[in-house]
Structures are given as structure tokens and as C-alpha cells.
Amino acid sequence: MNKISTLLRLLPLLCFTAALRGQNAEIIEIATNDSAMVFVAKSGAPVIFRYWGEKINDRHLLLERGYDERFQIYPAFGGLNHANIALSLVHADGSLTTELIYAGSETKVVDGNRVETIIRLRDKLYPVTVDIHFMAHKAENVITQRAVVSHQEEKPLRVENIVSSYITLRANSYYLTNFHGSWGREMRVTEERLAQGVRLIEEYRKGVQTTMADNPSFMLSLNHPADEDAGDVYAGALAWSGNYNLRFAVDEREVFHFTGGMNPFASVRVLEPGEILETPEMVLTYSPRGRGQASRNLHDWCRNYALAHGGEPRPILLNSWEGAYFTFDEKTITDMIDSAADFGLEMFVLDDGWFGNEYPRDNAKAGLGDWQVNKKKLPRGISYLADYAVSKGLRFGIWIEPEMVNPNSELAKKHPEWVVKSPGREIPQERNQWVLDLSNPAVQDFVVKTFDEIVALSPNITYIKWDANRPIFSVGSEYLPNDRQTHFWQDYVRGLYSVYERVRAKHPDITLQLCSSGGARLDFGALKYHDEFWTSDSTNAVDRVLIQYGTNMIYPAMATASHVSPSPNHQTGVALPLKFRFDVAMSGRLGMEMMPKDFSPEEWAFAKKAVQNYKLIRPVVQFGDLYRIFSPYEGNARAAMTYVSKDKKQAVFFGYTLQHCARMSTFDVRLKGLDPAKNYRVIELNPKSPRGAFPGNGKTFSGDYLMKAGVSLRIHRPHESVVLHLTEK
Ligand code: DGJ
Fold first, then answer.
1. What percent of the chain has pLDDT over 90?
2. Candidate of 185, 349, 537, 569 to mutate for ligand 1, largest count of ligand atoms within 8 Å of Cβ
3. Rounded to whole angstroms, how far apart are CA atoms 121 and 131?
4. What is the CATH number of the domain that holds 452?
5. Which residues contact 75 (CB under 8 A, 6 or more apart)?
6. β-strand 638-644 against 395-400: which pairing, if any?
7. Does 367 lie in the same domain as 246?
8. How large is the average pLDDT for residues 205-228?
9. Do both 400 and 263 map to the same domain?
10. Residue 325 shares a structural domain with residue 300
């Protein structure tokens, strides 16, 4: 009896194995806790991309779905045609075609959470191999993918295009969400139904500031526009800080094809025999529960794998930029430090303007590259200020922009050969500056040395804001040989990453902010070396609601630097209440960026209290799960969200009415993400008046009630807001 039942249990497996043998095919599954990508491989034939979605039990049945060579894991240019091409090579003999077939696979358990699978492909004719690497991050349901190419042809091979990832999906319709904008209005969210044909999201010529207009990330919903809490949503983000290309194609059979990777424009790579070319990683996640879960997967993954010190709380800081700009002396800064300490902040950051002597950095026209402390402004040096901050109980940080140089600088005169330029042509300036050629190891050494020297100014410097304020124009490198100029785009980024690696190896504890005129370099490739990013130069709180909503679709709130700035704001001139500005900034990594002495005593008292309140909610905002409730993009009237701690014992609700809303009588909202069985005491933080906006302030409600009946808030005018702190009772 026992034997029979064992046999019955094994039957599906035996059939499965027989099917494999019969078809000479095998299934390769890349599995996380809840999702799986499935490929079908046959020796001597292309590997087929078969499935990506929720884990399925009967995956062997996928073998019976035919074997269509048009849907390959990594289609090269050659053989059958495809909607997108993953790899395009010109072989040493001039042949343009490559046909990749299965050459084996390997699986390695990296640790309790990560499994790496390598699927090996080789060309049918030429000695070219392509390894596709997948890393399954089980708990976060994230899969990262990259490709590695090498060859043993007799002469160099030309790599015309090489992507990180190729995905095929089949559905009735496809809805693409992408994140776009420009300076001061980054990461705007737009969703569109993909028509037959190709939609490109790319940056092909900036090299630096590549995410100013579009972010290399997306979400894709199948069959209907994306919902926050239901339906199939796929999300992806390229971990690359250079030119990129995301291509979304719906072919004539309504099949969806995605390729994502470095942009091939003007970037042919000459690969020597035995040399290896590796793509950046594409970060992928699948959610059966809408956009919300896709974001939470990426946030968890980012905190664990793509953010420096992802488990440590971020400090609340005062940054000098919007308060002082370039005009300050020692007293201006020590006064700001005094104020920061009085507010209860934890760090002071001295922004641009502290360096340059022969060419003093008194404005954006001079000094970049000359990283010596300006003696006139700061006669006792940086160490005096850093020590002063520490004596007031604050950490101290400083701004740098080490990839750039002003023509008006000692560095530009000394090393003209380090500047990116096209020989014989004028070197275009933007923000009065040029870009240094990071493909050159001497420039990499200079940047590392600069970083070391600045950190050495004081042991009390524990935070660096790394800025980059212009893209590349009129490309050219004096370092690269004439026949390797097209390597520049990739080599710049590899040079930058090599610098980050060296800096991080030497200074593992330093807090690094990723900044590029705001969010113009926001990608997982750079972010992994940093603790946070400067989200936008627009600190106008209404803009910020839109920017942060889009940003936090992909990148987590704990890394989203979010500052309370002057009002009317310098960028937009719109006056906004201090409460609204704090309530918006507190949904990310709170900071302040204004001149404290401009505050009235009432504003000062409010700010102090708000900083205290942020300390209460910080663990939930920075480490909790984000549940979006109202989108500021729908109806343009309100935005709302909840952060819920992993154990669901605490939550923070944020609700905002926006500038352009019509008069509304109530703000009724059902909370999300709570434990229905738990009881929560709800306290309104930062109330505008003692009466507040939440009638149930201080009372206890069940999670069930708060998620079903919700709360009614007394906010209806533009720029009003509510923050509720929920704690389990
Ligand atoms: C651009 C940054 O985004 C600002 O925050 C500030 O640091 C300026 N650069 C300084 O030049």
C-alpha cells in the first residue's frame, strides 16, 4: 500500500522526467519565494523564455506548449527574426550574424536568500560565449539579470549592441508606467497602453545626468491599467549610471518584448580575444498584487542589496544651500549650526562654496577642481566648523563635485588633457563647467585622492554630498586611443564605479549622498554606493508630493532626501504653510534647507516639535512598507499613503490636499496595510491648531475599522495636510 502511494506521488515527477527526456528538453527555473521565471533548454538549440509570474506547481506542463525559437532568452542578430535584439556582433571576418544555442547551466546557492543561476549560450559557428546570470533574491521576490560575453576569435570582435535582459510576455494588452520629467520636476508618473510597435525610454547622449528626463525604470501591467493592490505588475530598473535604453515592443502577434541595457548609440565596443564584456544588472520584480507590492519588493531589495547602510536610520539634517548659497562666512555657518542643534537636528551639511583660493568659489563660475578650503571665508578651516558641529551634538557633512572642473580653476590650467572634449573643437560649457574624463585612470586617481583629502580635513566629517551638475557634450577622450573613442560612454561609468569602489573600500562608514542637480543620477548602479539621494532641486512641497510619489514607486523613502525649504520657494515662488512643508518632507528622509534666522518664533517652535515627531515615526517611514492610497496624478486634488512597520504594530498616515484642488468638504480615506485584528491608538502629529484635523485624535480603533470605515479628515483647502501616528494598543 505504501509503495503504491509512493509511486502515485512520484508519478507526475516520473512523467515530467520522461517528457524531458522525450523532447530532450529541460526546464530551468529562476525562483524566488513567490515568483518564477522559467526557461526551456534543449541541447544544441536556442533557450526559450517561457514564463514569468507567480510560481506554478505544474511547471513541467510548460514543456508541452511547443518550442518556438522566436522567443529566445537572448536573441542575437541572426537566425530567426525577433521584435528586439539582445546582442549584435560583427565577427572578426566581418560576418554580422550570431546564433546562440544552449551550452549548459549552473546553479550556486550564494546564501540563505540568494541563488545564482548561469545559463550558458554559445554561437553555433564562432567561438563566442554568452553567460546569462540570474540572481534570485527569494524574500524580496527580486531577480537581477546580466550578461557576460567573451570570445576566442582570432581578431577583435565588434559588439554593436548588448542588453542586460530580454523579457517576453503574452497578454491581451500591456500598460506601461514610466517616470519622466526634467530639472525640478523629476519622476512624473505616466501610464499608457502600448500600441503595436516600439516605445523607447532612453538616454543616449548625456553620459552624466542620465536620469534628468527619464528614469531607467518602469512598471508594466497586463490586461488593464495598473491598480495599486491587484493584478499582475512587472517592474524593472537598470542599475547603470550611463546612457541606457529600455525598449518595449508589442509585435504583430501581440506578444510583448522588453530589452533593457546600456545604450548602444555611438558605443561600439571592440572586444579583444579573451576579453570579457559584462553588462550592468537589470533589477526585476513581479507582483500579483498590483503596483504597491512591486514597489515594496524593490524597496526591501534596495535596503538589503542596493543601498549603503540600508539597515541604519538616516539622520535629520540642515543643509546650507538654500539658506546661504555661496554667500557665507564662518559666523553664518556657526549660527546655522547653533540653530540646527536647537531644532534637535542631527547633522549639518556645508554645501557648495567652501573651496578655491586663486579662483574662489563665490559663484558657479569658478573654483571647481580646486578642493582647498577658501581661506577668506573660512580662516580656521573646515576642521573648526566640523568640531564646532560636534561640540553642539551634530554630525558634520560637506559638498563635493569631483567629476567636474570650471575653466576658471587651477586644475583646468594644469590638466587640460583631463577634460572631456572633441579635438580641435570648442569645449561647450554648461553651468560654466566641464566634465573630467573618468575613463582615464589618472583622473580616477585624482578623484579618489580628492575625496581622501577632503575627508582628511577633519575626523568629524562623516557625510559627503557628491554632486554632478552637467551632462557630457562634444564627447572625446585624450586618454582613449583613436580607434577606441566609442568606448568612452561605458568607460566613463566604469571609471566612476571604480572610484566609488575605492572610496567605499577606504571609507566604509561615511554617509554618501547621491546628487546630480537633484535626481539626475538616480539608478540602482550608483545608489548602491550611497546612503541616500537628493531627490530634486525643487523643494517646493507641492512639486515634492508629485516627485516623491513617483520616486517612491521604485526607490525607497529612507533614501529620499526631502527638505523643508524657504517659502515662497526660490524655484517657484509659491508660498506654502510650514506645516504642509514639514508634513511632505517627513514622508521621506527629513531635512531642512533654509536660513533658520528667517523663522518667526511660532515657526521655530513648530519646527522643533515637528523634528521631535519625525524621530517618533522615523523607524516606520524609513523601514516600513509603503501603501499608496490616493495618487496626486489622479484628479490632481489629493495624495495619501501609509507606511506600516513590518510587524504591523505601528503605522504613519500622510494626507495632502494640493494646490490646484477644487473646494472639497471632506477628506475621507480608508487606510491600508494594517493588521485588521490589531487595535491602534491614533495620534495626530503636527496639528495646525489644538482642535486638529482628525476628530478621533487619541482614540483607539481596530485595523479592520480603519481599513474599512476609514477616517474623515477636516482638510479641504489647498496645501492642507494631516499626519497620523498609529501605535498598537
Ligand atoms: C545642485 C544640487 O542639487 C544643489 O542641492 C546644490 O548642492 C547645488 N548643486 C550646489 O551647487
1. 91
2. 537
3. 6
4. 3.20.20.70
5. 46, 82, 84, 85, 86, 87, 100, 166
6. unpaired
7. no
8. 98
9. no
10. no
Phi/psi of residue 315, each to 5°? -75, 155
Q: Which domain holds residue 15?
A: 3-305
Ligand 1: atom nearest CA of 534 is 3
How many Cβ atoms are within 10 Å of 334's Cβ, its own excluded? 16
Distance (Å, whole) CA 42 – CA 21: 10
Grid coordinates in use for 161? 549592441
**Residue 356 Cα to ligand 1 middle (Å):** 17
Q: Give the span between the Cα atoms of 297 and 414, in whole angstroms.
A: 48
State how far the alpha carbon of 47 is from the alpha carbons of 41, 106, 125, 151, in Å: 5, 14, 17, 20
In this model, does residue 292 exceed pLDDT 80?
A: yes
Q: Among residues 305, 336, 353, which one ends one of the domains?
A: 305
Candidate of 399, 533, 538, 540 to mutate for ligand 1, largest count of ligand atoms within 8 Å of Cβ: 399
Closest C-alpha to 462, from 521, 389, 412, 407: 389
Cis link prior to 568 (omega < 30° from 0)? yes
The single-letter DSSP state of residue 647 is: T
Ligand 1 mean position, distance from CA 570 (Å): 13
- The cell numbers describing 263, all together, are 545604450
Compute, in angstroms, the gap from residue 462 CA to the centroid of ligand 1.
19
Q: Place 44 in a pLDDT band, splitting at 50, 70 and 90.
A: very high
Which residues, in sequence order, are bridge partners of residue 146? Answer: 133
Q: How far is CA 87 from CA 78, 158, 163, in A?
A: 9, 11, 7
Residue 465 lies in a domain: yes
Contact 220, 260 (CB under 8 A): no
* Residues designated catalytic: 467, 537
Ligand 1 centroid to Cα of residue 517, in Å, is: 6
pLDDT single digits (tens) 332-390: 999 999 999 999 999 999 999 999 999 999 999 999 999 999 999 999 999 999 999 99
| Residues near 627 by beta carbon (within 8 Å), at least 6 away in sequence | 228, 292, 641, 642, 643, 644, 671, 672, 673
Instruction: Output the average pLDDT for the chain.
Output: 94
Confidence of residue 635 (pLDDT cuts 50, 70, 90): confident
C-alpha cell at 318: 540642515
What pLDDT does 662 receive? 55
Structural element, H or E, at residue 3: helix 2-23
Tell me the pLDDT tens digit for each residue of 535-546. 999 999 999 999
Give the domain-ending residue among 513, 534, 555. 534
**Local structure of residue 594 (DSSP, 8 states):** S
- For residue 74, give Cα distances in angstroms to 137, 153, 159, 713: 22, 21, 15, 53
Cell of 708: 474599512
For residues 485 and 455, state if they share a domain. Answer: yes
Domain tally for the chain? Answer: 3
Query: 321 CA to middle of ligand 1, Å?
Result: 7
Ligand 1 atom closest to 364 (CA) = 11
**Residue of 349, 534, 594 to test ligand 1 pocket, by largest number of atoms within 8 Å of CB:** 534
22 exposed, middle or buried (CB, 10 Å; 0-12, 13-18, 19+)?
exposed
Q: Which three cell numbers stand for residue 605?
A: 517652535
Q: How many CA atoms lie within 13 A of 130 on its CB side?
A: 30
Nearest in space to 46 (alpha carbons), one of 17, 92, 87: 87
Query: Residues with beta carbon inside 6 Å of ligand 1?
Result: 321, 351-352, 399, 467, 469, 515, 517-518, 534, 537
Rounded Cα distance, 488 and 704, in Å: 57
**Cα dihedral 562→565→571→572 (10° resolution):** 100
Q: According to the model, what pLDDT value does residue 84 have?
A: 86
Domain CATH number, residue 660: 2.60.40.1180
User: Of all atoms in ligand 1, which is nearest to the CA of residue 351?
Assistant: 7
